[in-house]
Amino acid sequence: MSGNREDGERGAAGPCLEIACDESGSDGENLTGGNTDVFAHAGVSLPLAEAASAVREIRDRIRSPAEEYKANHLLREKHRAVLEWLLAPEGPIHGRARVHLMEKTYFVVDRAVSLLLGDPAEAAALFRAGHRTFGEDGWRVFLEAANHLLRVRHDGDPVETFYGTVDALCGAHPGTDAARILERLAATRFRAEAYRTGFLDGPPLIPVLNPLLPAIVRTAALWGGDGRPVRLVHDRQNMLTPDRIAWILEAARQAGVGLAGVRLVVARDDARVQVADFLAGIARKIASDELNGRGDPALTALLRPYVDPASVWGDVRSRTLLTVQVSGRC
Predict the structure, then answer these.
(1) pLDDT, average across residues 156-173
(2) In the predicted model, is pLDDT for residue 330 greater than 70?
(3) How far apart are CA 149 and CA 137, in angstroms?
(4) Measured on CA atoms in the order 244, 250, 256, 259, is the torsion positive or negative?
(5) How large is the average pLDDT for residues 47-56?
(6) How far apart are CA 290 and CA 316, in angstroms?
(7) Is the pLDDT assigned to residue 254 strictly greater than 70?
(8) Are 232 and 213 spatial neighbours (Cβ–Cβ below 8 Å)?
(9) How far is CA 245 from the centre of its chain?
(10) How much is the mean pLDDT over the chain?
(11) How is the beta sheet containing 38-44 ordered, strand by strand?
C-alpha cells in the first residue's frame, strides 16, 4: 500500500488482515478529572457485509428512530437482550473482536513513574499501596498532581505542585511502602523540570498522557501476533495526524508488529467501524461498573473473552473479573 497523506493510510503492499477500530472514553489528557475513568479501544475482524448485517440486526431489534446508533442504545436496560446477543458466544462478533482497556488513574501513575524513575514495576507497587496508605483524599491529590505534571497544558507551576505533594505525603506516612517509592520520586525533580522545559519548543508530537496512540499499537499487536501483517481502518480522530500515524507505524515496527497501514474513515460510512464503536462503548461501561464495585456479573462474563489480558489496569479485583487470566501484564 502506498502512502496517502489525505486519508492517513501508510504501509507496504501485500495481503493483510484488515481490522476496524474505534475508541470510547477519550478525555484528552485530563485523566483524573474527566467524564470517564476507563478508556477502551476496540478492534473488529469482520467482512463488511457481515458487519452491515449485524448493524441492521441491531437496528431491527432496537427500533430507535436515531439515524446513528451508539453503544448507549444497547446499554439501556430495555435492550439488554440485544446487548447479550451481540456479546454471546453465538453472536456475530465472538472470536472476531478484541478490546484493549486502560484504567485511567493507573495509566497516569504508570506514565509518571516510568518517566521519572524508569521503573514500571514501581508504578504497580505505588498504585496498589497508594490509596490504602494515603487515604481517598491524599491519593486523589497525588493523582491530580501527577496528571498536572505530565499534561502538555501549562497551568501554574506543575513541578512545584507535584514535588510539594510528594514531600507532604512522605512526611505524613513515613516508613510505608508507598512513602518509600515517593522518596525515590522526590529525588527526580531535575527530570521533571527537563520534561516541562521541553514544552517551550512547542507541544510534543506524542503526548505522554494520551491513551489513543499506544492503544492503537497494542491493537495491531493483538491481531498480528501470528506474524500476519495487519492493516487498521480507524474512525477519524483529530489526534491521528499524518505525523502521528507515521509514529504509530514506527512504534509497531520496533515492537515487531507487522502493521502495514492505518486508514481513516468516517464511522457512519463503514459498518465495521460502527461495530467497533459499539464494542468500545459497551466495554468501557461494563469495565467501569466493575472497577467501581457495581458490576453486572452476567455482562462481565460476556465481555471477558474480548478483553486484552495486557490491558493497562491496576485494580486487582476488577482485573481478575474482567480478563481471562494468563501470564503477563494487565
Answers:
(1) 96
(2) no
(3) 18
(4) positive
(5) 96
(6) 11
(7) yes
(8) no
(9) 17
(10) 92
(11) 97-103, 38-44, 17-24, 230-235, 259-265
